Amino acid sequence: MTTGQPAPAGKPVPLPDDLTAPYWEGAGRRELCIQRCCRCRTFAHPPESLCPACNSPELRFEAVSGRGRVYSFTVVRDNVTRGFEAEVPYVVALVELAEQKRLIVVTNLPEADPERVRVGSPVVVDFEARDGMTVPQFRLASDDR
Amino acid sequence: MNASLRDRVAIVGAGYSSLTRRSPRLLAELTVEACDAALKDAGVTRADVDGVATVPTMPAYGNAGSLDGADVVSVGYLIRLLGIGHQVDWYTQTPGLITSTVIDAVNALAAGACNFVLVWRAVHMPRGRYSNFSRPGAGGEDQFRAPYGWTMPAAWQAMAYQKYFADHGAGREEMGRFVVDNRANANLNPRSYFRDVPLTLEEYMASRMVAEPVCLYDCDLPVDGCAAIVLTTAERALAMGRRGALITGYAQTTYPSTGGFTDPENMWIGGGAMGQKLWAAAGVGPEEMDLALLYDGFSVFVWMWLESLGFCKRGEAAAFFRDGHGRLTGSLPVNTSGCSLGEGRLHGMAHLTEAYLQLSGQAGARQLPNARRAVVTVGPGSWVSGGLVLRAL
Ligand SMILES: [Zn+2]
Fold first, then answer.
1. Do A106 and B263 touch (CB under 8 A)?
2. How many angstroms away from the CA of A24 is the closest CA of chain B?
3. Is the dihedral angle over the CA atoms B311, B96, B358, B172 positive or is it negative?
4. Among the four residues A13, B32, B271, B288, which has the most C-beta atoms within 10 Å?
């Protein structure tokens, strides 16, 4: 479990902006909050200014189940990102959230054995504390057993 | 594109600077070398150039600067170097990729805005790693990527490989067969970085992993260099008695993805829609192509384009290359010069110059016996990609 464990110093920390602040504030409450259109109920991520489906400006963040499946993934062997030097090899996965097709969130699977990750593997959200911020991080649902 | 634009404009010359991993010479010098070579090949001189166009961007990642003449070569910079400011009637600097630039040039020439357009793409390999992310904070689109160590193009595109492999039961061995055949083409290309370096499937399978399942040989080859082409109207080209490649049709992708490269599906959606527009614009179909020059910033793009353009069904590209259909002797030779994977990363110029060389019968040892029509794509299929159909003049 990554919960409460401070990450190694130096990994990039997200810089929230007006559009994305509620996403990161939600993560701080240990909730995965995804933007949703009040008119047509379509989810959007990364956050949008207008709903791409119906163009409504009324988009609100709501907590989602935090469940999904690995849509695709990679195991990074040749690191170029600050702070990830000691992590190599590490998994980066695209998670398709249960709420909507092709609603995708980027994550690591910090606790997972890279050899056991598959396209389609069920995953559950978790959270990692990092330099005063909280970053959503998923884990393999099969690791919960 | 309206049918009235078909075959109105031709590529009549191509030229290269030296292509090396890191050149001791300034990018400006390499650019002048490529442009003068293209003009010479077209049978014209600097005095004939009244249109100029380029993409003065990239390398945009990591440690790249934007110093004109060293990191990029802008229209203004080159006009000054060539001393043609007094005679240029039309120019553009397009964002995105070189297909947009060529499309603008076609439109300008067909409209009568100018007579000879010089198009170049100069690419500088920055010092250090190409795509380092070294900042402590990640804003904008990076805030959803960099905190997860997902900051390099190879790791972004790895998602497309993994999804393709999982969806269609293919794997690195099939990809390796394409890359190995592609290297054999590069071995027949005298300006290719890998001209003297063959590649075996065993070497591909054992090569260094960058971001699984992407290995070193799946990535295009960063170089210092420039390629240039010269375009003019079909009437003028015929009057000059030039060999060349007529631009029969063009199209661009119009499916922007959100949040960067978050969904490889956008490559098929965007590429497929572009393919339909391209064949409609050109008035011909995939079955009439004699060769295909498909963008290969990463090897998987070639598979996706082959399917997006309708040369085979989705999921069939792996078998297409495994069975050798893409070789010089195959049913549809693909990337006959080795393109970006073998010649070097000039962001689509290798594809344009090779279409011109094959269609004008100047491709040397790799010349196809009956190359009359070619298709070129540049980009990953999603936003900013473009395509051209060309035929022998
Ligand atoms: Zn909506």
1. no
2. 10
3. negative
4. B271
Yes or no, beta carbons of B146 and A12 under 8 Å apart: yes
What is chain B's pLDDT, residue by residue, as a tens digit (393 residues)? 999 999 999 999 999 999 988 888 999 999 999 999 999 999 999 999 999 999 987 654 555 578 898 888 999 999 999 999 999 999 999 988 999 999 999 999 999 999 999 999 999 887 766 667 888 999 998 999 999 999 999 999 999 999 999 999 999 999 999 999 999 999 999 999 899 999 999 999 999 999 999 999 999 988 999 999 999 999 999 999 989 999 999 999 988 766 555 678 888 899 999 999 999 999 999 999 999 999 999 999 999 999 999 999 999 999 999 999 999 999 999 999 999 999 988 999 999 999 999 999 999 999 999 999 999 999 998 888 999 999 999
Whole-number Å distance, alpha carbon A45 to ligand 1 midpoint, is 13
Boundaries of every domain in chain A: 19-64, 65-145
* Residues whose CB is less than 8 angstroms from the CB of residue B60 and which lie 6 or more positions away in sequence, other chains included: none
Domain ranges of chain B: 3-129+222-245
Report yes or no: A14 at the B interface, CB cutoff 8 Å: yes
Q: How many angstroms separate the alpha carbon of residue B153 from the centre of ligand 1?
A: 31
Angle between helices B299-308 and B172-186 (to 10 degrees): 100
| Tokens, residue B129 | 């790693």
Q: Is the ipTM of this complex over 0.90?
A: yes
Contact A72 B166 (CB under 8 A): yes
C-alpha distance from B360 to closest chain A C-alpha (Å): 42
Q: What is the 3-state secondary structure (H, E, C) of B273-324?
A: HHHHHHHHHHCCCHHHCCEEECCCCEHHHHHHHHHHCCCCCCCCHHHHHHCC
Residue B196 CA, chain-centre distance (Å), reads 22
> Does domain B3-129+222-245 fall into CATH 3.40.47.10?
yes
